[in-house]
Amino acid sequence: MILDSIALSRQQVDGDTMIVNLGPSHPTTHGTLRIIMELSGETIIKSTPEMGYLHRGVEKLGESLRYQQFIPLTDRLNYCSSIMNNVGYTHAVEKLLGIEIPKRAQQIRVLMSELARLGDHIVCVGVNAVDIGAFTAFLYIWKQRETIYDLFEMATGQRLHTSFTRIGGLFRDLPEGFVPATERFLPECEAAIDELEKLLTHNPIWHDRTKGIGVISAEDAVNWGYTGPCLRAAGVPQDLRKAQPYLGYETYDFDIPVGTTGDVFDRYLVRVEEMRQSIRIIRQVLARLEPGPVNVDDPKITLPTKDKVYSRMESLIHHFKLIMHGMEMPVGEVYSATEAANGELGFYLVSDGGKNPYRIRVRPPCLPIFSSFHEQVKGFMIADAVAVLGAMNVIAGELDR
Amino acid sequence: MIIEHIDAELPGTVTDRHAFRGDQTIVVAKASFLPLVDFLYREGFQLLVDITAVDWPEREQRFDVVYHWLNLASQERLRVKVPVADAEAMPSLTSRFKTADWFEREVFDLFGIPFEGHPNLTRLLTWQDFPGHALRKDFPLDGGDAFCMEGCTAPYNNGERG
Question: What is the Cα–Cα distance from A116 to A357, expressed in whole angstroms?
């Protein structure tokens, strides 16, 4: 009995349909999630996503940590673009505190966020292409993500789990050589995006596999709670960087690409264009980057620098007090949203005046998008489900928290 | 802005309100919640951004169910909080907002708040026979007994908040 698969036993009972598990461990699920599909031949009759395999109780853990201590946990939400989660969370705490960070810190946050968006879209587009069978495009674009990780390593000391921001600013200023390295990277990345487009955008096989798959109307997309590239592909020009600017995004010159049908092909086009727009923003940041402090001038918030912590007793105590004892927080509740690579990443913080947050809620952008999965693939082939799943860019770490 | 509209159109709905750091919050009673949702939808608050809850164990109405709406046309946000007692059901919004489906399942899973009229109210993140509801304040942080996980009564964090 144990050796009999669920699929076989079900088939014997019903005779006509077949149950197939996609996941929990499957290369196209991008993490650990499971989809139970009922198939008639290769056509999907019903699909039931099952999630929670990566549920680590991040929100519960947050209630027992100081505000600063929660930052490393945000790395593990969307691990493809962890800096954007750092930025989103610290932005929410800064809103709760009612402080504004220095200009240079804002610029560096924008710079790192756009690099992360570039990296995230490279993962999404490249892996989506691999899942459908276009392996070459993936290899061409993947090299650029390695360079982005090298840049992250240079600035933060970590490739994946960056923990780069601190409440009130940044962990440290950009190291020497970071700006020239980024400047060298940008034309290379542009060339790689051109190559990617040459391989995919006018490729008839790519068209066959992506056009008309996962179509969604603008109205439905809003009703399903879509945000980010998937919503824009459906024709709604909603981007928080333009609509509700933060970190000085209103001062940068960039465009919001919008699709028409919301299908996998439109999502691909929107993401590719967003990569170009991100490069545009990065160039503007590099042009206007001015020297200055990267943390607010408030010893009750800002941590002392590492060289002082390691050499002066007072700074060590100061650092210890801020991390272990925590900061003074006002009583109140805020919801702060930033435009992450997948869509609106929201943090809802409730403070009762204690040193820990009373409640931290992470609003993951891909949860509402993934919840529409069964409607998106109903009546399509099993191979189309893989294309839709890739284009949704479901990141299990963020989905399950 | 929208709150003045609500006051004019549905007088007596808002029982409490506050604005903090630019966020507008209203508290409404459960009985007047569905008419309010209909009104908000007509006014353009069509993107239901999030549904979550906050547990206040010492309160008589223990939970705040928190809804965040966004008006795409005016980019105005509104937070609506509905206090409910333990085991008291909230009306489900799944017929109006498809996105409410999973959000309500998650709140049911982690807080144990039932939603009336939900087509498939099962746990979303934890497994089906998980004991207790993880985000309640009286659920232990370490998950209790690692093997049988029964009788989750120990106060979280040894009963102390920092």
Answer: 27
Instruction: State the first-to-last Cα distance of chain A, in angstroms, to the nearest integer.
Output: 35
pLDDT of residue B18: 87
Is B68 close to A363, i.e. CB distance below 8 A? yes
Environment class of residue A195 by beta-carbon count within 10 Å: exposed (0-12), middle (13-18) or buried (19+)?
middle
Q: Could you say which of B50, B75, B157 has the minimum Cβ distance to residue A244?
A: B75
pLDDT in tens, A71-128: 999 998 888 888 999 999 999 999 999 998 999 999 999 999 999 999 999 988 988 8
Judge whether B17 is closer than 8 Å to chain A, CB to CB. Answer: no
Give the residue from A32, A34, A46, A60 with the most B CB atoms within 10 Å of its CB, the best one to mutate. A60
- Chosen for mutation from A227, A325, A347, A371 (greatest number of chain B CBs closer than 10 Å) is A371
Q: Tell whether the model's pLDDT for residue A202 goes beyond 80.
A: yes
- Condensed to tens digits (0 to 9), the pLDDT of residues B48-91 reads 999 999 999 888 899 999 999 999 989 999 999 999 998 889 99
- Does A60 contact B135 at a Cβ distance shorter than 8 Å? yes
Give yes or no for a contact between B96 and A224, defined as CB atoms under 8 angstroms apart: no
Closest CA to A167 of A65, A278, A59: A65
Residues contacting A355, CB < 8 A, separation 6+: A66, A67, A325, A326, A327, A329, B162
B68/A60 touch (CB, cutoff 8 Å), yes or no:
no
CB contact under 8 A, A334 and B50: no
Residue A122: what residue type?
Answer: I
Collapsed DSSP state (helix, strand, coil) of residue B27: strand
C-alpha distance from residue A290 to each of A105, A114, A179, A251 (Å): 10, 18, 12, 15
ipTM of the complex: 0.84
pTM beyond cutoff 0.95: no
Do residue A52 and residue B124 have CB atoms under 8 angstroms apart? Answer: yes
Sign of the Cα torsion A76, A81, A87, A89 reads: negative
Q: What is the largest CA-CA distance in chain B?
A: 56
Task: List CB contacts (< 8 A) between A223 and chain B.
Answer: 46, 97-99
How far is A394 from chain B, CA to nearest CA, in Å? 15
Chain B nearest-CA distance from A24, in A, is 14
CB contact under 8 A, A223 and B97: yes
Would you call A238 and B125 a contact, using CB atoms and an 8 Å cutoff? no
Please, what is the angle between helix A178-200 and helix A264-288, to 10°?
160
Residues A308-364 have pLDDT tens digits of 889 999 999 999 988 888 888 899 999 999 999 889 999 999 998 888 899 999 999
